[in-house]
Amino acid sequence: MKELTHPQRLFLTEILKERLTLGHPKYLEIEKDLAKRRAGYWGEMGLANYMKELPQEKYLIFHDLQLQINGIHFQMDTLLISQNYILIIEAKNISGTLVFDNVFKQLIRIHENGNEEAFEDPRVQCQRLQSLLRNWTAKNSRNVLPIDYLIFFKSTNTILKTNPGERLDFSKVCKGRDVFNKIENLEQRYNHERVDNHIIIKIGDLLLSHHSPKPINILNEYNLTEKDIRSGVCCPNDKCHHIPINYKRGKWTCPICQTISKEAHIKALSDYFYLIKPMITNFEVQSFLHLPNNDITQKILLRLKLPTSGKTKNRIYHLCTKKVSACVLS
Fold first, then answer.
1. Count of alpha carbons within 13 angstroms of residue 116, beta-carbon side
2. 49 in Cβ contact with 21 (< 8 Å)
3. For a tag on the chain, would you pick the N or C end, based on fewer CB atoms within 10 A?
4. Are 124 and 151 in contact (CB under 8 A)?
5. What are the residue boundaries of the structural domains of the chain, listed by start?
6. Dist CA 42 CA 39 (whole Å)
7. Per-residue pLDDT tens over the stretch 91-125
């Protein structure tokens, strides 16, 4: 019902790291957050690959479904819907030795050097999602199915433990392909068909129609402004990424690796739209791309055929996701 796509927060953090002014004090924080978000996405990808093996006639499968109720946004990595029940599966991609602390409701990673790192207890996270989804379905659908959850760890090398004397409900936790055993156990638990296939499709369509990602202002999240962002066109060479590169005679040339491109400005404009604001003037384009004059700027904008508002000097160009973001995500 909904494929897994590149998460917007990860996408924005990647752009921000690349565009942040050199030597910025927030760089290490952003780099650390980016590593965590990439790891999380890889965990979701691992789970999505396993979900492809489930019988398609039996389940509706949603990845990264985002809903809201009473002004509260909530996101589920994977959601399965059958005639018997609904299953939330949260993917985790945390390696090493992990200890579930039942006293303080946290997950502790023990590094090889003995240092400890705390994470939110995924059980608490899933219980919150379970409660929010129950409230959402009760409010939006007459057909309320029981809702359960699983916590999926991508790496089979992850070691799961509890503190001495404590117990962990392993029916809610799995690693790798064990996810299929856990789903089979849940099928046996919820062995009564509560609704027919027609109703399941209606519920699935309803969920999909209410998918509403929370707007993200990545600069505000790090207390940054446009002044913290490097302007200029980025070198498209994956091994270089120098900013800025130079425009001459219809081509962009990197002064470091000599890579040549005719369309490198599209990625730069996309960065502007997503980081700063979804609209731009002719003057702002010339300034941000470091173009030599207004005539060249106008020719580049005309070729892009972006949506516009206003006339002549007051004309504003708007983000067109099909033309601009596709260049970045490809």
1. 9
2. no
3. C
4. no
5. 8-209, 231-329
6. 5
7. 999 988 999 998 889 999 998 888 999 999 999 99
Residue with tokens 């890889």: 42
Burial class (CB in 10 A: 0-12, 13-18, 19+), 259: middle
Q: Tell me 228's DSSP state.
A: G
What is the token pair recorded at 213? Answer: 């990602």
**How far is it, in rounded angstroms, from Cα 252 to Cα 262?**
6
Give tens-digit pLDDT for 2-35.
999 999 999 999 999 999 999 999 999 999 999 9
For residue 126, the one-letter residue type is C
pLDDT of 127 > 80? The answer is: yes
Q: Per residue in 229-253, is it b (16+ CB within 10 Å) or e — as a string?
A: bebbbbbbbeeeeebbbebeeeebb
* Token code pair at residue 34: 């980016």
pLDDT digits (tens, 9 = 90+) for 253-270: 999 999 999 999 999 999
231-329 carries CATH number 3.30.2120: no
Report the run of H or E that residue 153 belongs to, with start and end: strand 147-153
Closest CA to 266 of 255, 283, 252: 252
Task: Fill in the amino acid letter for 55.
Answer: P
pLDDT of residue 328: 39
Run of H or E including 285: helix 282-289
